[in-house]
Specification:
The chain is α+β, with helices and mostly antiparallel strands. It has a domain of about 40 residues. The chain contains 1 helix and 2 strands. A hairpin with a 7-residue loop joins strand 1 and strand 2. The model has no long low-confidence stretch (mean pLDDT about 85).
Length: about 70
Amino acid sequence: MGTRFDYFSKRSWPDDPEQPVEARANRLLLASLMKLHGFQPYPYEWWHFTLQNEPYPDTYFDFPIR
């Protein structure tokens, strides 16, 4: 992951060169698969993706999940 929690520094960027080779490879794999399935990556957080063709772009869902 690069850090022990969701740390918002350059260490969370997908292409941070200071991360170990394995972490960078895993980040690239995740991004490749997410893009393949219609998600757009956020350039400053390796874990953050947005569905490109969101079916309900103007709907706010607020309900409990069980």
